Amino acid sequence: ETGVTQSPTHLIKTRGQQVTLRCSSQSGHNTVSWYQQALGQGPQFIFQYYREEENGRGNFPPRFSGLQFPNYSSELNVNALELDDSALYLCASSLTGRGRETQYFGPGTRLLVL
Amino acid sequence: AQSVTQLDSQVPVFEEAPVELRCNYSSSVSVYLFWYVQYPNQGLQLLLKYLSGSTLVESINGFEAEFNKSQTSFHLRKPSVHISDTAEYFCADGGSNYKLTFGKGTLLTVNP
Fold first, then answer.
1. Which residue in A103, A104, A109, A110 has the most chain B C-beta atoms within 10 A of its own C-beta, making it the best mutation to test that interface?
2. How distant is the Cα of A34 from the closest Cα of chain B, in angstroms?
3. Residue B87: beta bridge partners?
4. Is A96 in contact with A30 (CB distance < 8 Å)?
5. What is the pLDDT of residues B47-104, one digit of tens each?
6. CA proximity to B83, closest of B39, B42, B45, B41
7. Closest by Cβ to B103, choosing from A42, A50, A104
8. Do B99 and A48 touch (CB under 8 A)?
9. How far apart are CA A109 and CA A42, in angstroms?
10. Quick count: other Cβ atoms within 10 Å of Cβ B26?
11. A5-18, pLDDT tens digit by residue?
């Protein structure tokens, strides 16, 4: 069974640039959730994709967007990067995304915005 | 709105001592509670979860947590910690239909 993988592991961007982060879900899972973890904080929910449709969104501006592909892998896109976007971005996969299900997390992508 | 409060940001203990990491939740709907552990420079790993049934849940590495509805708590305990337990621990509520709401985390540092 393949776990959740994310790429790249680290990324450095400058303010105003755009970034794309990628996530491959665990085998058999069709739901991907994205979280932002700022330094010293708990993860904050960005959005969730279930069978290629957005299934819920947290309190993040529209410049945070996502996509899920037919193989259930996913991308997180952030436009017009700001310094406060520096964080660890975590992807989690689950079977259907319902609250009682375990979400399995990838190792994360650490983004630094200069 | 759901919220999760972890009352201690840092908990230093000596090896082989008992430890309790505190977590309180505010959800009034279905309660699904999780404890995740994050080792340095890694993602989150599930430690244990409460969905229903027995209020005491256990993990394979000696941690246990007790769901207390009257006190809206889900504290994590271990009777004897090891150096390798040093990590950040996050309590989370899955009571919404799709997202996890996390606390701010508790850094457990086990000293020799």
1. A103
2. 10
3. B108
4. yes
5. 999 988 888 898 988 999 999 999 999 999 999 999 999 999 999 998 777 789 999 9
6. B39
7. A42
8. yes
9. 15
10. 13
11. 999 999 999 999 99
Residues ≥6 apart with Cβ < 8 Å to A1: A26, A27, A28
Amino acid at B61: N
The bridge status of strand B4-6 relative to strand B10-14 is: unpaired
**A33, A41, A100 ranked by CB distance to B99: nearest:** A33
**Chain A contact probe: residue of B100, B102, B104 with most A CBs at under 10 A:** B100
Per-residue three-class SS string for chain B: CCCEEECCCEEEEECCCCEEECEEECCCCCCCEEEEEECCCCCEEEEEEECCCCCEEECCCCCEEEEECCCCEEEEEECCCCHHHCEEEEEEECCCCCCCEECCCEEEEEEC
Chain centre to alpha carbon of residue A48: 8
Are A108 and B40 in contact by the 8 Å Cβ rule? The answer is no
